[in-house]
Write a structure and sequence with these properties.
Blueprint: H1 2-9, H2 15-18, H3 22-28, H4 31-34, E1 39-41, E2 47-49, E3 59-60, H5 61-70, E4 77-81, H6 82-103, E5 109-114, H7 121-131, E6 137-140, H8 143-150, E7 159-162, H9 168-179, E8 183-188, H10 191-203, E9 209-213, H11 238-251, E10 256-261, H12 271-290, E11 297-299, H13 321-339, E12 345-348, H14 352-355, E13 359-369, H15 386-400, H16 408-430, H17 436-460, H18 467-476, E14 478-482, H19 486-489, H20 491-496, E15 502-504, E16 514-519, E17 542-544, E18 554-557, H21 564-567, E19 578-584, E20 592-598, H22 603-609, H23 614-630, H24 636-649
Parallel strand pairs: 4-19, 5-6, 5-12, 6-7, 7-8, 8-9, 9-10, 10-11, 11-12, 14-16
Antiparallel strand pairs: 1-2, 2-3, 4-13, 13-14, 13-18, 15-18, 16-17, 19-20
Helix pairs in contact: 6-7, 6-13, 9-10, 12-13, 15-16, 15-17, 16-17, 17-18, 23-24
This protein binds pyridoxal-5'-phosphate.
Length: 667
């Protein structure tokens, strides 16, 4: 929409603006590095989704937003593309099918989906449905997850793996599910758990199957390295495994060690590590087969990586899905062939790789705060304070001097003077020697001077920028106030500095001229995005567009499907955002239809979580208003209106109603 508008309204476009294309936008926001062909910048300068991971069908995200607005759904809104979820399941399974065929591997592969990555019922159902042709199963890690997953095992063959520490009641429930013929495998994290399982099985007079998580020598790397290796808090050591073997052989009661498991942690960064762990486990498997234990499955855990940024960046994933599948299949096949044992059924617990791509958090910029916005300020009054005149002199020199017509040293000297004056002004103000108005004038000139210094330094020596350049760049970044809570929706950014791709959904055919930082609604200095995915050297800010009056500026947070919305907390009581599920369909207008809308948290929902309830709060409020009426401070009618207003707020959404059009900034 902006494209057509600006081409109508604008006189000949400036040369610089004309040079910016949608390809530049795709490159700047690194779309190809993280989208895995599910997202592109289209010809209109909008972000578009390719729900099937190929160009044959694309959905313009602005069409989706238009329909959401029409239906009265507000932002922030989590938009789930269910087809992307299905495509991820297919890609993962097809990769293993291909690897198995190419290697001549003599067994099959199953994905089990660990629901902790995204427990939303619709996500689990969609993954199960897409995985049906491949015999996809589930993994649970807690009592609540066990209860949720048990009811979703349609076929008796469908695997359910139960990780995590389990108490007696959970083990008993697992045994009962085995009793009704379900393929449920509790994975022993500790030796004591194994003893409990056997004891309860004997009590129930039934045979049981189980798996063990092995504490391998190989460990993972990166942010989640502690999930594997000797130091891991999970798993059974080799001496304990031998005790399990001895106990099984001694009892001769038909209990079965069916599965061996390791988990290296999320975002495995290197294939050799995975290969080594798989080989290590395959040797253990071969030994156990040799000892007469009919182990059936090898489960290589999760950790299949997803690129949120360029693969070459820290934490980047430098292997493909195909390489991952080949590494697992060949490592295990080679060991089994060497040792002359049958090929086990392969299992992986890939969570992030299935769910990350399918959801996009759409937020709106409410306002942009620019520090040096008052560039066309009136000239300084004659009777202004001495230090204001000093600063004005420097500012005039900075603005009158042409770019490149001075030296770096002179500009730096001017900058230091500017900083000194600003410090002096702050001291004088705090001692009462400067009026508020005088101080405001100095602050305005300070920001203008900083901007001018930066412009000079950039022009003078772009190659060898002095440290002041970075300082100033950080100082002068615009703040974009955005309607969301980082603690609710982008928790990993706050907790482990995970960068997420963030892209304006509109105006991508227009050069983003402002350097911005996104700040959220929470009253917390951590409530900001401090690392971005872009082609810039410095990732502490992102190039964005100037906000236009009356025009929304929607921004997409991509790859939000794994872990984020599930872990969100109740910081400032914002709660879950609105959510919609979109399907791609070439027969529909705009190539999509919206299947489902899940409303976000209401004020009363969030309050109930912390034990505030409408009746009590309203009674208290009523009491206060009544006192004011009785005292004659307000008319009864007005008092009742205030109470109605208070009551209505309980059913309202926790996020903001963006009635306020974004402010046009001074150019
Ligand atoms: C978290 C977890 C997974 C999922 O890992 P991803 O990196 O999301 O694939 C798999 N297995 C276990 C045991 C886990 O704890």
């Amino acid at each position: 929409m902006s494209a057509s508008r600006s081409s109508l309204e604008q006189k000949p476009a400036p040369v610089e603006a004309a040079a910016w294309t949608v390809a530049d936008a795709a490159d700047y926001y690194r779309v190809d590095a993280w989208s895995d062909d599910f997202f592109v910048v289209n010809e209109s300068g909008h972000m578009a989704v390719q729900p099937f991971g190929e160009p044959s069908l694309a959905i313009d995200m602005l069409d989706v937003l238009a329909e959401l607005r029409e239906r009265g759904i507000r932002f922030p809104c989590l938009v789930r593309f269910q087809d992307v979820l299905r495509a991820r399941v297919r890609r993962l399974n097809e990769a293993f099918i291909d690897a198995i065929a190419e290697a001549g591997y003599d067994s099959v592969y199953h994905t089990v989906y660990p629901i902790k990555v995204n427990q939303l019922h619709e996500v689990v159902e969609e993954v199960l449905d897409a995985g049906k042709p491949y015999g996809l199963g589930l993994e649970c890690g807690s009592r609540a997850e066990l209860v949720a997953t048990l009811a979703h095992l349609e076929s008796d063959e469908t695997l359910l793996l139960c990780n995590g520490v389990k108490d007696r009641a959970m083990i008993a429930l697992i045994l009962s599910s085995q009793r009704i013929g379900k393929n449920v495998i509790p994975i022993m994290e500790k030796y004591g758990e194994f003893e409990e399982l056997i004891r309860l099985a004997e009590e129930a007079e039934q045979q049981t199957q189980f798996g063990v998580r092995i504490r391998l020598r190989t460990s993972g790397a990166g942010k989640w390295a502690d999930s594997g290796g000797y130091q891991s808090k999970f798993g059974i050591s080799l001496p304990e495994l031998m005790r399990v073997v001895d106990a099984l052989k001694a009892s001769d009661s038909g209990h079965r060690l069916a599965l061996l498991h390791f988990h290296l942690g999320s975002q495995i960064s290197e294939i050799p590590q995975l290969r080594q762990a798989a080989r290590e486990l395959a040797h253990i498997y071969a030994e156990l087969i040799g000892l007469g234990l009919p182990v059936r499955y090898i489960d290589v855990g999760g950790g299949l990586g997803v690129n949120y940024t360029d693969a070459s960046e820290e934490g980047g994933i430098r292997y493909s899905l195909m390489e991952y599948a080949n590494a697992v299949v060949y490592a295990i096949k080679d060991v089994c062939d060497e040792r002359g044992v049958p090929h086990p059924v392969l299992v992986s617990e890939s969570g992030r790789a299935i769910t990350a791509h399918h959801s996009v958090l759409v937020v709106e910029a409410l306002d942009a705060y620019r520090k040096n916005s008052a560039e066309h300020a009136p000239p300084l009054a004659k009777d202004a304070h001495r230090i204001a005149h000093n600063l004005d002199e420097i500012l005039s020199w900075l603005t009158a001097t042409e770019a490149g017509a001075t030296t770096v040293d002179k500009v730096i000297e001017a900058y230091h003077d500017v900083v000194d004056i600003q410090d002096e002004a702050a001291t004088m103000f705090s001692m009462g020697y400067l009026s508020l108005e005088q101080n405001a004038t100095i602050e305005r000139m300070y920001w203008s001077s900083c901007a001018a210094v930066l412009a000079h330094l950039r022009a003078l020596d772009p190659e060898h920028a002095p440290p002041e350049v970075q300082q100033l760049e950080e100082l002068l970044v615009d703040q974009y106030l955005v309607d969301f809570s980082i603690f609710q929706s982008v928790l990993d950014h706050w907790a482990i500095q995970q960068p997420f791709p963030i892209v304006p959904l509109d105006r991508l055919d227009e050069r983003p001229t402002r350097r911005g930082m996104l700040v959220d609604l929470t009253c917390d200095s951590d409530g900001k995005i401090s690392q971005y995915v872009s082609a810039d050297e410095d990732k502490k800010f992102l190039h964005l567009h100037t906000l236009n009056r009356g025009e929304a500026y929607p921004i997409g947070f991509f790859l939000m499907g794994a872990y984020q919305d599930i872990m969100g907390d109740a910081h400032n009581l914002f709660g879950r955002v609105n959510e919609v599920h979109v399907y791609g369909d070439a027969e529909e207008e705009g190539n999509f239809w919206i299947e489902k809308v899940i409303p976000g948290a209401k004020v009363q929902d969030m309050l109930a979580q912390v034990q505030y309830f409408p009746n009590d709060l309203q009674r208290r409020m009523q009491e206060q208003v009544k006192q004011k009426i009785d005292a004659g401070d307000i008319r009864p009618k007005r008092g009742m209106e205030i109470l109605d207003q208070y009551r209505a707020a309980f059913a309202e959404e926790t996020y903001l109603l963006n009635t306020r059009a974004p402010r046009r900034e001074e150019e």
